[in-house]
Amino acid sequence: MNYTKKLFKQKDIYNIEKTDQLFVCAMKENATFQYKNCDDYKRILDDFDFNPDELNTKDDLAKLPFLPTLYFKHHHLQSVPAKKQLIKATSSGTSGSMSKIGFDLKTLLRGLDMVIQVGKHHKLWSIKPTNYIVFGYQPTKENKTAVSKTAYGFTFFAPAKSRTFALEMTDSGYKLLWDKVLKALDKYSKSKLPMRTIGFPAYTYFFLRDLKEKGIRYKMPKGSMITLGGGWKQFYAEKVDKQDFYALVKEVLDIDEDHIVEFFGAVEHPILYTDCKCHHFHVPIYSRVIIRDPDDFTPVPNGKIGLVNLLSPMMNSAPLLSIMTDDLGILHNEKCSCGASSPWLEIIGRVGVSDIVTCAAGADEYLNK
User: Fold this and answer.
1) Tens digits of residue pLDDT in 256-286
2) ∠ Cα 110 287 264 (to 5°)
């Protein structure tokens, strides 16, 4: 039976308890496939003396050997031939050290099912034409970064009337075009169509802060949204309190807090985490999260801080079942007023690993220019 396909066809996307055993079966199914089709992954599991047949209960998930995201920046693993990988994406960065992940048809179909259901739950789908401002990279044939692909993909939640990119490709590379974004924002504010933004929180915040300092205010059309993704990365020291951020959006653009949505994910773990109305990242049924002690990697109880270990059977083309991120986080079990029953993940920050290249690497160079 195709347990993974069944998992991604579920419609109640935050009913973790109902799907626990289905998730375990899907992980076992995927681990078996990866073990048989990726020699490097087989060697890794054999070195840890772990067999996919050992995955039978949700407690067994913590025993599955994890791979750090840093590993994929130096090793390319695949379980299907390259010619069957329809889309290839990389993590971003300028040092040349980046993850390279290929997506085959099965993986893409699972992802499509996920995006459809997540979009429905969070009311992201709309048939009304929309103007977009992307606080990120303009897509090019040369740019294979996942962050540029996902930002562009977001513009299909509602039909794109127009797209304005903050970072445009020039003869000398990407250039941050604040003036062009401002002109687009001014134009969109006079339109009857809604406006949506997508991009790095730091870019969005710095832009809006600049407008406030210049005394520029707008009233954006009804239905406009601010959506964020990619985290603060190397701008973490300048990260502002969420309520201060929401207040700035309201003051400058007259967009209410309930129309601000944030996403979380990674090229090595392409699951769409979307915050609820309380701005909590509830764990969807397509994944599980284990918080591990930074010293010995043992799981810690909910409510305790540790390294974030992300699990999912989504990927068919590469063994990305259990990924150890460089994020520090807390898994909360407290009841949330949004109604979602699954635990929610709070990202605290990143560990100080000098070799890790983040999605927003180099962004400070653009801002300085």
Assistant:
1) 999 999 998 888 999 999 999 999 999 999 9
2) 90
